[in-house]
Amino acid sequence: MLEISHLTHRFGSTLAVDDLTLTVPAGRITGFIGHNGAGKSTTLRAAAGILPFNAGAIAVDGHDVRTDPIAAKRASAFLPDNPDLYDFMTGLDFLAFIADLYRIPRAERRDRIGFYAEAYDMTGNLGGVIGGYSHGMKQKLALISAFLRRPRLLLLDEPFVGLDPLASHTLKEHLRALCRDGGAVLFSTHVLEVAQTLCDDIAIIRQGRLVVSGPTATVTRDASLEDVFLELQENAR
Ligand SMILES: Nc1ncnc2c1ncn2[C@@H]1O[C@H](COP(=O)(O)OP(=O)(O)OP(=O)(O)O)[C@@H](O)[C@H]1O
User: Fold this and answer.
1) Ligand 1 test: best mutation among 41, 190, 192, most atoms within 8 Å of CB?
2) Model's pTM, two decimal places?
3) CATH (residue range 2-85+152-236)
4) Measured from the CA of 12, which atom of ligand 1 is nearest?
5) Where are the chain's structural domains?
6) Whole-Å CA distances, 20 to 39, 163, 164, 203, 216
């Protein structure tokens, strides 16, 4: 579903991502783990088609993000760690705007908004302006807008930070459901426990380079990775 080949990107003299190759298959949740500044957000933004990267190639559901950007963006939804939404709009206006943008038929949008708003306990808040939302409420609205689109690929940057335990639980269920329906998920996290319990696959990035990727059980069992895990755990603390 997502094919990243030899992705390389620099910000000035900082080599943020260095020759990274990673595949996220359909039907699987992949956890993208690394310490602060490892290159996770840069990779996710490149995959989402919002960061013009220096070298390499990325395809989403077979669509090259550089040569076929509209099809690639249509197939994926990206949630940044700090969603920048339109403060002057109500939550409902924002969702209607996204539904218009992605041409979601009226009956479907009503059903999906109703379903996801209920699931994230946002039904009573959608009439309020986004500027008055808490950080967690903004995050939930961004999640609803992503699920509303039924993306094939979901790219999430630290999605569990700021969510209450119930919303975190709901999100995990929705990620699993998206994969059951043939979609794929790539999300970044510092929390190893979340990755270990939720992910089918884990990819570890350090200083812009992919250290390892593969099925969670294999990656976490590999003794040579103990150092990487310890380092990440220290970082998380
Ligand atoms: N817009 C930017 N301008 C300059 N340097 C940047 C920019 N964005 C990221 N970087 C640098 O690129 C490197 C990778 O950053 P990135 O945000 O991808 O890491 P990350 O793994 O997502 O980190 P975190 O877990 O802290 O979010 C870091 O050295 C960072 O300082």
Assistant:
1) 41
2) 0.92
3) 3.40.50.300
4) 4
5) 2-85+152-236
6) 10, 30, 33, 11, 19
